[in-house]
Amino acid sequence: MVQSTTALKPHAPQLPETGFVRIWQIVGNKKQNIPALIPIGRTSFLNGVKSGKYPKPVKLGERTTAWRVGDIRALIDSMGA
Q1: Are 54 and 45 in contact (CB under 8 A)?
Q2: Does 68 score more than 70 pLDDT?
Q3: All structural domains of the chain with their residue ranges
């Protein structure tokens, strides 16, 4: 029987199957007790986006920016390799 990674890490943050995630869901928010998917600071992540190291965001509204779940999954997979 194969265990999933979520079974091994019960407190690991989870991504939805499809859709978008906001920056605080990616880098976490200590004040709201939201764990990070990627252990990096907000400014470092945004600098990586600007340099092309991390995926570009999508504007969902005038003041709403998000990242595609598929792009974040691919980033996490590439970091683990």
Answers
A1: yes
A2: yes
A3: 25-62
Q: Which residue has the tokens 């400014």?
A: 43
pTM for the predicted model, two decimal places: 0.79
Give burial (CB, 10 Å; 0-12/13-18/19+) of 67.
buried
Q: How much is the pLDDT for 14?
A: 79
Of 35, 34, 32, 51, nearest to 43 by C-alpha is: 51
Rounded (5°) CA angle 41-36-54: 60
* CA-to-CA separations, 54 to 12, 47, 79, in angstroms, rounded: 21, 9, 11
Q: Which parts of 1-81 fold into alpha helices (H)? A: 5-8, 23-27, 42-51, 69-80
Retrieve residue 4's tokens.
């999933």
Q: How confident is the model at residue 81 (pLDDT cuts 50, 70, 90)?
A: low
Amino acid, res. 32: Q
